[in-house]
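ugh ok so i messed up the first submission bc i forgot one of the chains. this is the corrected input, ALL of the components this time, i swear. 334 residues overall. if the numbers dont match what u have on ur side tell me asap before i send this to the collaborators (the ones from the other lab, u know who)
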Amino acid sequence: MEAVYLVTKVRQKLAVDPRVGLTDILIHIPEAGHVVVSGFVSTREQQEAITSALQEMPEITRVSNRTQVRHLQPTHQSEIIGKGTPGGKS
Amino acid sequence: MIRIAAVGDLHLTVHGRGKMRPQFEGLSDEADLLLLAGDLTNWGKPEEAEVLVEELSDITIPRIAILGNHDYHNEDPERVRAILEDAGVTVLENESTTLTIGDATVGVVGGKGFGGGYGTTCLSPFGEREIRDFLKSTYACAEALGQGLSELRTDYKLVLLHYSPTAETLKGEPVAIYPFLGSSIMGEPIDEHGADLVVHGHAHKGTEHGQTAGGIPVRNVSLPVICESYALYQIEQKARALVH
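and heres the new structure output, hopefully the right one now
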């Protein structure tokens, strides 16, 4: 039960901490005091800030930061839209 | 035929300076207009909006944006909007704009939108004032979409939102948070008045392809979803003429 509340606190911390500001990080508490975070971040600085922010939380004794920095691919293909598209009343 | 580039959820911070600009190289040759689907900044701070403007500065085609929830976090979306508009970006909040591309006219109706849920589990404006207040901006956006789309007399009609008008492009997100990712309240006026394409962001773990209940194509162009610098769509005039 405590894990449920800790997940919420971790989620809120990562959302509002000015160094992080992330709302879509996956959070897992495998055991008391141990938090595992995963997902994608934009920069190396943001990734490092996650660990720093979580280490400041008194309830957390161990942080496993498994997030990855997102690398965008160049845009290659264009999708063709229109064939058979309903048009409403227009 | 018009070519549309679209992306949302850039979540730019001051640390992102110079990171997106190279990604947009070539965009102006590949598309006729760029649609920016909100959450362009991470905290809604003016300095982040300034970074965004720098990142977009090489793009020579028309740029049309709406703001997302992150752009409101600093409680000064007007400042973010002003910075973008000063740089020549058209910003829509329950508004529409028209432009001419070659010999075709294009109308874009846009707004942030809001949540409420979908279909049989859609929230109703009933009970406590807080619940009714929650839905106010969703209904305001729906009304603006209906009015804007009904008034457009352009060859192409596009809708630009941050929140989704359909649950189809949310697949991959936890179902429990669907009501916070959009609402079918916004889908109804789109189906009623018709559009060629709807693009939105916000749902980072969602799905790119979907459609409204009435079959209008909807694309979730959230950057984490498309995993590319921007998505590209072509709408063909001939195919469209078959419909109308």
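quick check: Chain B touches chain A through 47 residues (CB under 8 Å). that seems consistent at least. The mean pLDDT of chain B is 95.
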